[in-house]
Amino acid sequence: MLRKIMALLMTLLLTLGMALAEDALPISQDGLELKIYVKMVGEAATIMDSYEDHPIVKEMERQTGLNLTFIHPPAGDEATYFSTLLASGDYPDIYITDMFEKSYPGGAEGAMKDGILMDINALVQEHASNFWNKIDHMAPYAKKAIYSDGGYIVKFGAQIYGPDFVEGRTSDGVLLRKDLLEQTGLEAPVTIEDWDAVLQAFKDMGVEVPLAMKQFSSSTSRVNAFAGAYGVSIRDFQINDGKVVYGAMLDGYKDFMALLRGWIEDGLMDREFITRSDDDTTTMFYNGRAGAIVGGAYMATTALSVAPEEIEGYDVMGCVSPRLNEEDQATLVRRAWSLSGNACFVSATCKHPVEAVKFIDYLYGDDAILLCAWGMGHMDGFDTYVVNEETGYREYSEYMKNNGSGLQYNRAIYTLQPLMMMYLDEPEYANYSLPQHKQIFEAFSWNRDDSQRLPAHLTLTAEESTRLNEIMNVIYTYSDEAIYKFILGETNLDEFDVFRQKMTEFGIEEACSIYQAAYDRYMAR
CA–CA separation, 509 vs 471, rounded Å? Predict the structure, then answer.
């Protein structure tokens, strides 16, 4: 009974804290300046020089009493700009980025130890009740991910993927021309054998490229389409029975390469895939040259809107993760995580860290989330959203959906996704509202998990990062070329053991041991 009473008191105190946090505005009475580093969404950059010009930022300034200024890295070259910024010593007050996680030795924890970022654990505990309230309702692995191995908070200001239809689901996989499949009279492919039949039927129908694959360095290679059927990752490490291994070192990788080699020889797959980018294959799928592609659920909207008029009945569908046997479970599928790679970090040189933490926590408040997700409501003679009288839910207005280049473009201009700390159901449904989207999500998520994938939020020490980069730069240079030669028939598959021996000489086992240590630390958090 005492425990129940204490739990109830804690809940009441947390609720009271939330109410106080919502009322704790303005944050500043005298226009205190906070300088924020954040990448602009591409479409926004076409009509504004800085988020300082954004109507939502101006409203945030009105509510918080802060003067918000911004630093934006140039589109397409954030890595170089970020490195130059750190080297300059002239830091913003707040970083909103994933670059510490992606490229700084030791990650955000390393940057704290190097005096670039501030350890804000105590400040977040004291001034971030909105954040803690949101985290309290998340899955256990997400709560684990907010901390580094050393106990530093490194996911304060990370966006939370809240919608049920996104959380835990898989948004990437193999997309197929549904209209072509119907013409073949075949069922949707599940097994590799099924795919053999479908791709052959596409070829017989005159489809130029039955399957358009992308170069393995492409981000979509992490979907592990077709490779997952053989229990291997295309270009990544994975977990097998608690042990970190590299996919290309496993026996199944030889079978995967043999599959692609056979498809290329039979004209079922694009031989030029080794040079194909995401944009290349996407264009091939949109214009009708390709029958299947590895891509995301979001592509359905564009594919249906830009399909050539001469292709009558153009339609798309998602396929379940390919497997050897229908009853097999796919275990190397990438799914949506609760926390984004981006997070907010307070610079070590910030003169107003309390206000910086309070501002980030303000973004986790319900009012700020709604403002960022839906826009200002009424502005400049139009509405950004309306309330559906039948359902009572908000919807984007006709202006937002149909004016200019469509909803995606207008959301970048009139909403503020980079500062939106939680993704909400209704606005995200607007991006995935077609019947095709529902089918794609259901197919991508069928009988799969990600139990063999490395957790998304591992952290490496500075020494581990440096050594791993040294090893993998050599590994990737060698392995990409060697694997392509196997697939293209330039090297006999009987030499696979020679390939593995070379990988061992180049240090792949040491790389596995580095990730093993990071994985063990993560599991012990």
Answer: 10
N- to C-terminal Cα separation, the chain: 31
Maximum C-alpha span of the chain: 74
Q: Which two tokens stand for residue 316?
A: 């798309």
Host H or E run for residue 343: strand 343-346
Q: Which two tokens stand for residue 496?
A: 């696979």
Q: Which two tokens stand for residue 109?
A: 């924890």
**In contact, 237 and 246? CB cutoff 8 Å:** yes
- The DSSP line for 5-17 is HHHHHHHHHHHHH
8 A C-beta contact, residue 510 and residue 471: yes
CA-to-CA distance for 411 and 180, rounded, in angstroms?
33
- Six-digit token string for 216: 């393995």
**C-alpha–C-alpha distance, residues 311 and 305, integer Å:** 12
| Beta strand residue intervals within 477-521, DSSP E | none
Tell me which long-range contacts 194-203 makes (C-beta under 8 A, separation of at least 24): 195/226, 195/322, 196/268, 198/292, 199/263, 199/268, 199/269, 199/291, 199/292, 200/266, 200/268, 202/268, 202/291, 202/292, 203/266, 203/267, 203/268
If we measure between CA atoms, which residue out of 200, 214, 324 comes closest to residue 268? 200
Determine the pLDDT at residue 172. 87
Q: What is the DSSP letter of 248?
A: G
* CA geometry: angle 470, 473, 479, nearest 5 deg: 135
The Cα 134–Cα 250 span in angstroms is 41
Consecutive 10-residue runs of the chain (525 residues): their mean pLDDT? 37 42 80 97 89 96 98 91 95 96 90 96 97 83 83 92 56 94 98 98 97 88 91 96 97 98 97 91 96 91 90 96 95 74 95 98 96 91 89 86 81 92 74 82 86 85 90 96 97 98 98 96 87
Q: How far is CA 93 from CA 116, 356, 362, 410, in A?
A: 11, 7, 16, 29
For residue 24, give every residue at least 6 positions away whose Cβ sits within 8 Å of its Cβ, in sequence order, or none.
Answer: 358
